[in-house]
Structures are given as C-alpha cells and as structure tokens.
C-alpha cells in the first residue's frame, strides 16, 4: 500500500525533505541520554533481581519516542506537499484532405519491388496514413476503370484495413489515369479544407477510361486540388506474372513504360510535384517528402493538473502521536 502511494508522487517543495536529517540526529541524541547508557554504581546485592523485574515494560520504554519520530517524519513529508500530476494534451489544428489514388492494374504485380509494386505501394501508403494525425484521408483505386475504396475519413484503422485489402484484378484491367484522377477529384469536390491533395501512383501509360487525363487535370485545377504524381518501376525491363490460357502462371519480362511527361504535366499544372520511384526505399522517400511538403497546422496545448496528496501523511502523523499519548497516559505514566 505504501509503495503504491509513492509510485506517482512528486513533491512541490522537495527542499523541505532535508529536514528529515533531523530524525537520525534526534535518535542519536535520545540514545546518548538514555539511562541505560549512563554510568551507575551498584550497591545492592539484589541488583540482578531488579534488572530482571523490569521485564517487557523496560524493553518497550522507547516506543513513545519511536512513535514521536515517525509522526515527525510524516509531518515533514506532508509539509513538502506531495502531489500527483495529470498531463493532458489538447490538439487543435487544420488538417489536409488527401486522396490516395493507386493503380491496381496487372502490371503492378511486377517484381522489381519487394515483393511487388502493389504490395510496396500498399505498405508505404499505410505508413503515410499513420503519419497524418489530424488529416482526413481516402482511397481511390483504378485500372481500366476507377472506384472509391474509402471516402474521406479520420478513422485510420478503417482506412488502413481498406488499403491492405487492395488486390489486382478487382477492376477491369488497363490504366485509366484520367478516370482515377477524376474520381479522386470528385471525392474532394465538397471538401471545405483549405488544402486538398491527390497522391496518384501508377506504373504505366494511360490506355483506357472514359475521361482523358487532360480533362481530369483541368477538373483538379478548377477545384484547387494539388496533385502529386508517382511513377513506380525500375529502368528497363521487369518480371511480371502472366496467366496463360491453361491457367498456369509464368513470369514474363516486359518493358517498363511510364508516361513521365503526362505525370509531370499533371503535377506541375496543379501545383504539385512528380516523383519517380525505382525501388521500395525510393517509394518510401517519396511519401516522406510529400509528408514534409503537406504540413498540417496543429496546435498542441499541454495542461498539467496537480492533486495534493498530503492528507494520508497527516493522518499517519496524527495516528502515531495518538499512540504516543496513549502509552504515556497508561503504561508509562509517571506518578509524582
């Protein structure tokens, strides 16, 4: 119980605890002046009998002084103002509304990333979600068509669960960059945030969809959306799993074709930036840079509350003083 009491205790006036040095000094003084330490002359042959007759009462004669010392210890500790501290943080800020737009076409299974481009994209996107404490985020996926996987939300657990559930083959195959950007922009159309962002990740060239990339870019510009574009893929060729007509999957090397000109144009004209990621580490660095570029305005106010905890010490001091008083009026009462 005593250990639990002092576990979270701090003292507002710790310098008062130096007074505890008085306790061993008083004990030493009491011991030096106790009758047992004085020189005595034995003049009676019955001295042995008299010493034995003192019995248990003589052995307990120092208890009142011990109780007084204990009460002094607790009084000194109470005067030092023992407290428990409660820390609270109030977070206020203006977040950014962000849509993460991920290409889920078949080529995203290329293994120039570990274990492949899609899994690497999912991992860094989930880590990015964790780093955006006060923002609303959503997820759009696209291949030959686009789909809103998760609308804007502050529920990071739900968002990450949706990201990890992404698989290639959920949509018609292809690379509809324009459709993916248009759907992402539509998700931000009603946003009242001062900062609206789309992070569009793809590994190919636009070859499908009903909305041309140029049209989607103009929609984003009109809505005041900054678009960060990411081209993922190594230089040259990459191994991609391909399923044959017999159902067997074989690895096939295909040339990496990223429309960097288009992605740069979309990013530049909307106030964003184009990035190229050739491996897992490069992709992580891209998201880290975007995280630095899109800072939320956050104000953290720390509140420290203190609760005085001197009462148990005062009660303990009173208890030992009471015991001393009882002993002096009963067992050790001196008669005139």
From TrEMBL:
PROSITE patterns: VWFA (PS50234). The keyword Hydrolase does not apply. The keyword Membrane applies. Gene3D superfamilies: von Willebrand factor, type A domain. Pfam families: BatA (PF07584), VWA (PF00092). Keywords: Cell membrane, Membrane, Transmembrane, Transmembrane helix. It comes from the Bacteria. Signal peptide: none annotated. Residues 97-290 form the VWFA domain. The chain crosses the membrane at residues 12-31, 63-80, 310-331. InterPro entries: Aerotolerance_reg_N (IPR024163), UPF0353/GerABKA_families (IPR050768), vWA_BatA_type (IPR033881), VWF_A (IPR002035), vWFA_dom_sf (IPR036465). PANTHER family: LEUCINE ZIPPER PROTEIN 4 (PTHR22550:SF5), SPORE GERMINATION PROTEIN (PTHR22550). This is Aerotolerance regulator BatA. It comes from Flavihumibacter stibioxidans.
């Amino acid at each position: 119980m005593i250990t639990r009491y002092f576990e979270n205790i701090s003292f507002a006036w710790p310098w008062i605890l130096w007074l505890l040095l008085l306790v061993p000094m008083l004990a030493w003084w009491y011991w030096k002046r106790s009758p047992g330490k004085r020189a005595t002359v034995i003049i009676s042959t019955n001295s042995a009998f008299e010493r034995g007759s003192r019995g248990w009462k003589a052995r307990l004669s120092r208890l009142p002084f011990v109780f007084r010392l204990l009460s002094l210890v607790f009084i000194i500790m109470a005067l030092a103002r023992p407290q428990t501290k409660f820390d609270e943080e109030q977070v206020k800020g203006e977040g950014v509304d962000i849509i993460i737009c991920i290409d889920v076409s078949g080529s995203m299974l290329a293994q120039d990333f570990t274990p492949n481009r899609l899994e690497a994209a999912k991992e860094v996107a989930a880590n990015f979600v964790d780093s955006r404490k006060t923002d609303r985020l959503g997820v759009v996926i696209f291949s030959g068509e686009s789909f809103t996987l998760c609308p804007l939300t502050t529920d990071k657990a739900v968002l990450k669960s949706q990201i990890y559930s992404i698989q290639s083959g959920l949509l018609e195959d292809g690379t509809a960059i324009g459709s993916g950007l248009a759907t992402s922009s539509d998700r931000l159309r009603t946003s009242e945030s001062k900062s609206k962002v789309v992070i569009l990740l793809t590994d190919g060239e636009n070859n499908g969809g009903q909305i041309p990339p140029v049209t989607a870019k103009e929609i984003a510009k009109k809505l005041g959306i900054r678009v960060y574009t990411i081209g993922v893929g190594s230089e040259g060729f990459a191994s991609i799993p391909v399923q044959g007509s017999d159902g067997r999957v074989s690895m096939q090397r295909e040339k990496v074709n990223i429309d960097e000109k288009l992605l740069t144009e979309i990013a530049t004209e909307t106030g964003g930036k184009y990035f190229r990621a050739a491996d897992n580490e490069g992709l992580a660095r891209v998201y880290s840079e975007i995280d630095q570029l899109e800072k939320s305005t956050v104000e953290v106010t720390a509140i420290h509350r203190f609760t005085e905890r001197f009462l148990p010490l005062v009660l303990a001091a009173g208890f030992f003083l009471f015991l001393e008083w009882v002993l002096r009026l009963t067992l050790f009462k001196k008669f005139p």
